[in-house]
Amino acid sequence: MGYPDQRFDVNLSILFTELPLLERPAAAAAAGFTAVELWWPWIETPTPPQAELDALKKALDDAGTQLVGLNFYAGQLPGPDRGALSVPGEESDRFRANIEVAADFAASVGCTALNALYGNRVEGADPQVQDALALENLVLAARAADRVGAILLVETLNKPESPLYPLVGAPAAIEVVDKVNAATGLGNAKFLLDLYHLSMNGEDLSQVIKAYAAKTGHVQIADNPGRGAPGTGSLPLERLLDELKDAGYTGWVGLEYKPGDRPSAEAFDWLPASARAAG
């Protein structure tokens, strides 16, 4: 049990960001990791030129890193946005334009998890209208994910840092997961359980794990306070990951934390080198 018993991947959108995108897979590999994940890398466009998609695929392949998670287009992230799929108008259109692009790229690199961030509440927009739009777009995304053998992830964020994001408790995200699965009949919508966000919401993490491990498709971690590496805060992350395993979760654990003032390569001291390569 403990950290060496997990399958970790590195989020290259929060770690190694001191390097250009195409150099990050090799940097993760040099640090001993064989699996990575990404937020949508092209925040300005849902439909980047094929040459840029090909270049990212080559960087992943050349480094020997497996992409295990990818966000759909989510607006300005990092930045003020928290997704696009429930935002009426241009942002919803951008999300739709991205669905097949992201799914096809995921298929090209063997990535089997696609994360669809819900999006913020918009001033002047009816929340019920936003939720109806969200379900419509999530159904399209779930079908595209299923076409390429992937799951669709729905994520809870935290209210202090994302006050306009409506899915700020595990039950809210689970409700959306259930609605999408009911609408598609595919059963491939899953919960993205982020222990940092849930802890920022003040949720009982052990209880969330017990209640929702069976519906969880991906896990992400950072310590709290500070969103730093494990051991920089007070969360019992090793114990919580053991609880997830005991509850039947055997998937990936994404390292989605800030490296602090040091280079990203030095932010993994808490994890033995022998435990970094995914078996």
Automatic annotation (TrEMBL):
Signal peptide: none annotated. The keyword Isomerase applies. The active site is at 155 (proton donor/acceptor), 256 (proton donor/acceptor). InterPro entries: HyI-like (IPR026040), Sugar_Epim/Isomerase (IPR050417), Xyl_isomerase-like_sf (IPR036237), Xyl_isomerase-like_TIM-brl (IPR013022). Pfam families: AP_endonuc_2. PANTHER family: HYDROXYPYRUVATE ISOMERASE-RELATED, ISOMERASE. Keywords: Isomerase. This is TIM barrel protein. One of its GO terms (molecular function) is hydroxypyruvate isomerase activity.
